[in-house]
Amino acid sequence: MTDPLSPKDRIIFALDLPTLDEAVRYVDLLSGHVGVFKVGLELFCACGPAVVHAVNERTKGAGVFLDLKFHDIPATVRGAIRSASTLKARFITVHCDEGRGLLKAAVEGGGSGTKVLGVTVLTSLSGEDFIDAGIDASRFPEPADLVLHRARLARLAGCAGVVCSGLEVGMVRKEFGPAFLTVTPGIRGAGEAKGDQKRTVTPYEAVYNGADYIVVGRPIRNAPDPVKAADSIAGEIERALEDRGERDITGCGKT
Ligand code: C5P
Questions:
Q1: How many CB atoms lie within 10 A of CB 241?
Q2: What pLDDT was estimated at residue 60?
Q3: Relative to the CA of 120, which ligand 1 atom is closest?
Q4: 69 a catalytic residue
Q5: Which residue, among 64, 57, 6, has the nearest Cα to 28 in the 3D structure?
Q6: CATH (residue range 8-250)
Q7: Spatial distance between the Cα atoms of 87 and 71, rounded to a whole number of angstroms
Q8: Please, what is the angle between helix 20-30 and helix 226-248, to 10°?
Q9: Whole-angstrom Cα distance, residue 76 to residue 183?
Q10: Cα(190)–Cα(132) distance, rounded to whole angstroms?
Q11: How many Å apart are CA 245 and CA 161, to the nearest integer?
């Protein structure tokens, strides 16, 4: 099957910035080098819907990933996603940890053109954090067990896909196939500082393992030359897609 997404289309750049001016500066700089701009809590709380309109207007065809990670009672999330869908974001996120009722409400609130993705287990968490989070380690000994459980709920609820780390994406891809989207944050180059992220992989590993998209923030934003960093990541993605294609002859991957 021919893949319609180019390597750069698969990069979601996280606009984790405090002002509209700074966001617009990065959008202008990186348009044409990444495929999607992610508006998260920091920027949305500072600028509101205006930033989504600004990104949509300034980029020709690059989508917006509205990463507000909704988490509330079903009726509230249904309404929030209904409102957010009018902003014409390509993707919107909801936490999976409240179960199927909330996920179904989120999907019901999503308008046509906005895909609802379930956030499985944050890439900033490792198994050691499960006790604090009240997660039963005898049932979910590894983050991968919980990711798969939550991905199943998201799938049953009708989500278009999930957000998970590159350590679990192969497993998710294997169980649900290529029509269920996978988005992988926690991307770091070999030896690069992890910051608050714990379950990290390189761009190559994420895509080779099956990710449709990768989310990259600091490794591009803090690079001396963000355009060069984005282009280099696209190069890694291209190599991973080629290698993944060869591996798929044996039946384990996406395309
Ligand atoms: O700077 P860095 O590349 O670590 O940024 C990762 C981005 O991905 C952040 O904007 C964060 O909110 C987002 N994200 C994540 N883990 C998830 C879902 C989203 O790190 N599970």
A1: 21
A2: 72
A3: 21
A4: yes
A5: 57
A6: 3.20.20.70
A7: 19
A8: 60
A9: 25
A10: 29
A11: 21
- Cβ atoms of 145 and 139 within 8 Å: the answer is yes
207-248, pLDDT tens digit by residue?
Answer: 999 999 999 999 999 999 999 999 999 999 999 999 998 766
- Look up residue 94 and give its amino acid: V
Q: Which residues pair with 12 in a beta bridge?
A: 36, 215
pTM over the 0.90 mark:
yes
Q: Which residues have CB under 8 Å from 84's CB, separation 6+? A: 66, 68, 92, 114
Query: Which one from 38, 69, 115, 254 is the annotated catalytic residue?
Result: 69
Instruction: List all residues whose CB is within 6 A of at least one atom of ligand 1.
Output: 14, 16, 40, 67, 119, 122-123, 163, 185-187, 195, 197, 215-219
Ligand 1 mutation target, pool 69, 123, 168, most atoms within 8 A of CB? 123
- Residue 171 Cα to ligand 1 midpoint, Å, equals 20
